[in-house]
């Protein structure tokens, strides 16, 4: 059995307000081409299909088209689970007839004990769940943590093992010893979501989702595929892609296939003068998502607007050396007392943001100050 392991698509996700649907469609096409080139027997998606439990209409349309292409047009069986970002109730809609085209989407704990058998492999699709679901399913009030729940879950799964086949677990949790990045929602409360790696030893391979880096866990038989795209600055050095898993041998053979983003996340560094110089910006991909490290200390009027005219996808600006005003621009305490309220607001805004107020913002301030003045006069 040869399959492709991917996860954490987060369809509909935005990065600092920028829509990623175009990037996600491009990454999916690369995944599909890898699946075809590697002649896999199935595609496994280990949770977080969507970024939100109530995804936008556009996100649903994109995912639906992806399913049509890989499952109906290319005839790949798809084995998927819901993750912590997904709404299991909403995803479950249509499940009974999805299986008619070999699209297996498990969203409930009880479905995890019905293995999907393909060739020499049994797939156990375990969606993200909270301890209370296991407590109710096993009718065991002592189950309070995910570790306790997983012990019972695996014990039950083992009763369905066909010893003549390989066993693959598809799951979406934080496995002990893994490393997180900034883009993963922090689920841990008192260690509730931590699954010990030893619990997973019963399986020949564990296809994990939830953490966005393929190297988040150092284990032979359990792997995170990572997300197909970079979702935060902390992932800037990560290679994104999918695992190709072959269960024909005694130990599964694994090969990572890289995906190249339509637009990458990169960092640039320099003074404001450098950044707006053609000699500087013509040497980089201005369409990428950029984190700017600014070396200037002084306030630069209208800085962001000027930078965005050149770099349309700035996701953050970091001042490397803080902000230091020149003596001639420094306003001493005694001078602040002489400024009118409107001037105080303008100066505060400029010092905090590095930009000047727009005409509309000035009108709002003027209206609000006038209202405050009227209230004060009425007292």
TrEMBL record:
**Xref: SUPFAM superfamilies:** Metallo-dependent phosphatases
Q: Which InterPro entries does the entry mention? A: Calcineurin-like_PHP (IPR004843), DNA_Repair-Maintenance_Comp (IPR050535), Metallo-depent_PP-like (IPR029052), Mre11_N (IPR041796), SbcD (IPR004593), SbcD_C (IPR026843)
| Protein keywords | DNA recombination, DNA replication, Endonuclease, Exonuclease, Hydrolase, Nuclease
The Gene Ontology terms for molecular function here are: 3'-5' exonuclease activity; endonuclease activity
Residues forming the Calcineurin-like phosphoesterase domain are 1-213
Q: Where is the Nuclease SbcCD subunit D C-terminal domain?
A: 261-352
Entry-linked Pfam families = Metallophos, SbcD_C
Gene Ontology biological-process entries: DNA recombination; DNA replication
Q: Which family does it belong to?
A: Belongs to the SbcD family.
NCBIfam families assigned to the protein according to its UniProt record, in alphabetical order: sbcd (TIGR00619)
**Entry function:** SbcCD cleaves DNA hairpin structures. These structures can inhibit DNA replication and are intermediates in certain DNA recombination reactions. The complex acts as a 3'->5' double strand exonuclease that can open hairpins. It also has a 5' single-strand endonuclease activity.
Question: How does the record describe its quaternary structure?
Answer: Heterodimer of SbcC and SbcD.
Recorded protein name is Nuclease SbcCD subunit D
């Amino acid at each position: 059995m040869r399959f492709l392991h991917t996860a954490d698509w987060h369809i509909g996700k935005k990065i600092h307000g920028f829509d990623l649907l175009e990037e996600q469609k491009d990454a999916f096409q690369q995944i599909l081409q890898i699946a075809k080139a590697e002649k896999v027997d199935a595609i496994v998606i280990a949770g977080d299909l969507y970024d939100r439990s109530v995804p936008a209409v556009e996100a649903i349309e994109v995912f639906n088209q992806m399913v049509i292409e890989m499952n109906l047009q290319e005839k790949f069986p798809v084995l998927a689970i819901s993750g912590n970002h997904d709404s299991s109730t909403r995803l479950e809609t249509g499940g009974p007839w999805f299986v008619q085209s070999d699209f297996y989407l498990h969203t409930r704990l009880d479905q995890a004990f019905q293995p999907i058998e393909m060739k020499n492999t049994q797939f156990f699709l375990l969606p993200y769940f909270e301890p209370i679901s296991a407590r109710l399913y096993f009718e065991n009030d002592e189950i309070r943590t995910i570790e306790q729940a997983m012990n019972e879950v695996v014990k039950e799964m083992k009763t369905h093992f066909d010893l003549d086949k390989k066993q693959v677990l598809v799951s979406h949790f934080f496995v002990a010893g893994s490393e997180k990045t900034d883009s993963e929602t922090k689920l841990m409360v008192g260690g509730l979501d931590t699954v010990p790696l030893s619990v997973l030893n019963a399986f020949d391979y564990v296809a994990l989702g939830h953490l966005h880096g393929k190297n988040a866990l150092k284990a032979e038989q359990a792997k995170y595929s990572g997300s197909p795209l970079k979702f935060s600055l902390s992932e800037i050095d990560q290679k994104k892609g999918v695992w190709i898993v072959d269960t024909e041998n005694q130990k599964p053979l694994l090969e990572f296939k890289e995906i190249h983003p339509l637009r990458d996340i990169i960092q640039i560094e320099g003074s404001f003068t450098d950044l707006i110089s053609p000699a500087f910006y013509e040497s980089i991909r201005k369409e990428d998502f950029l984190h700017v490290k600014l070396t200037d200390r002084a306030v630069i009027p209208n800085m962001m607007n000027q930078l965005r005219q050149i770099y349309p996808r700035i996701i953050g600006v970091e001042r490397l050396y803080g902000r230091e005003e020149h003596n001639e621009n420094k306003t001493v305490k005694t001078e602040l007392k002489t400024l009118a309220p409107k001037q105080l607001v303008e100066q505060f805004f400029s010092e905090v943001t590095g930009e000047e107020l727009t005409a509309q913002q000035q009108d709002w301030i003027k209206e609000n100050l006038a209202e405050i003045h009227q209230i004060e006069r009425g007292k």
